[in-house]
Amino acid sequence: HAADAHRTDLMTITRFVLNEQSKYPESRGDFTILLSHIVLGCKFVCSAVNKAGLAKLIGLAGETNIQGEEQKKLDVLSNDVFVNALVSSGRTSVLVSEEDEEATFVEPSKRGKYCVVFDPLDGSSNIDCGVSIGTIFGIYTLDHTDEPTTADVLKPGNEMVAAGYCMYGSSCMLVLSTGTGVHGFTLDPSLGEFILTHPDIKIPNKGNIYSVNEGNAQNWDGPTTKYVEKCKFPKDGSPAKSLRYVGSMVADVHRTLLYGGIFLYPADKKSPNGKLRVLYEVFPMSFLMEQAGGQAFTGKKRALDLVPEKIHERSPIFLGSYDDVEEIKALYAEEEKKN
Ligand code: P6P
């Protein structure tokens, strides 16, 4: 039977996580139940995003439908789906969403031992031009039985127990780490199941792609300016790097994870903390990069060691291939010595 195992022994994401969780004898399947609700949300969003192009015809997602009702924008719709799925899982106590100004505290009867931070539809401004967008999430455990507060999610990324993203592009891919490596699952629409297609993803130690919005170059600080200059005009005779920038974090990070290289959203004069959000963009992507053998740096420290003070706090971020990030860390260290 081994010969056609890939056809008859389907490793679905649920089965994969059950296998992983069976390593922890004390686990009672709570995480698996939580994850199955996140997966449900991703399947819904995948279907809605794929229909988005038809929205104008069938009045969905931000259009006025034939009854003249204002349909919800896709990112608001996605947020409602994820909040409802997470609350109904009965495994969460605190939720932080990019779409909601305040954290959601789950009612006592439905509380569980996890806190989830997420961006339900990151890069949603790219929907109308068909560019890949995605859901990004990170998971903390609740380590007390008192009333939950925002303190339960204002924790360093190094306390996250799992993180992942789902990319809605030419195919729907869910990339996940529960702390034992990074694994990629592709949605098989005919089965409605995410199937393991990329086991144990490792990012190349060095890449030849840099990914940054060059339009902000006039506002960058010294080390970032020097690093990008080095990518374009290498002094050591090595080939110049290629620039690839989609402008949708999930797409840029996914390419970096698979092909190697570095993704940068630096601080600049206009935004001293950069643009990307710590809890549900920087931390989950940094967690994945480290689990895949890469690293993530804020310009000052290891990204996962940041301790956020506000749930929508931003941070500069440099993440990707280990050796590439080392180079920009050295430039920031040099700058530090001068000051
Ligand atoms: P800029 C999308 O709006 C987003 O939040 C990320 O997905 C993406 O990496 C970044 O902003 C792009 O920002 O300033 O380059 O357009």
TrEMBL record:
UniProt catalytic activity? beta-D-fructose 1,6-bisphosphate + H2O = beta-D-fructose 6-phosphate + phosphate
Query: What residue stretches are annotated with the Fructose-1-6-bisphosphatase class 1 C-terminal domain?
Result: 203-332
Keyword Mitochondrion tagged: no
- Which GO terms of type biological process are on file? fructose 1,6-bisphosphate metabolic process; fructose 6-phosphate metabolic process; fructose metabolic process; gluconeogenesis; photosynthesis; sucrose biosynthetic process
Q: Does the keyword NADP apply?
A: no
Q: What is its EC number?
A: 3.1.3.11
Residues in Fructose-1-6-bisphosphatase class I N-terminal domain copies:
11-199
| Name this protein carries in UniProt | Fructose-1,6-bisphosphatase, cytosolic
Q: Which organism is it from?
A: Arabidopsis suecica
Q: Name one GO cellular component term.
A: cytosol
Subcellular location per UniProt equals: Cytoplasm
**A single MF term (Gene Ontology):** fructose 1,6-bisphosphate 1-phosphatase activity
Similarity-based family: Belongs to the FBPase class 1 family.
Q: Which InterPro entries match?
A: FBPase_C_dom, FBPase_class-1, FBPase_N, FBPtase, Fructose_bisphosphatase_AS
Task: State the needed cofactors, names only.
Answer: Mg(2+)
Assigned keywords, A-Z: Carbohydrate metabolism, Cytoplasm, Hydrolase, Magnesium, Metal-binding
The record's listing under PANTHER family reads: FRUCTOSE-1,6-BISPHOSPHATASE, CYTOSOLIC (PTHR11556:SF41), FRUCTOSE-1,6-BISPHOSPHATASE-RELATED (PTHR11556)
Q: Which HAMAP family match?
A: FBPase_class1
**Which Pfam family is one of those matched by this entry?**
FBPase
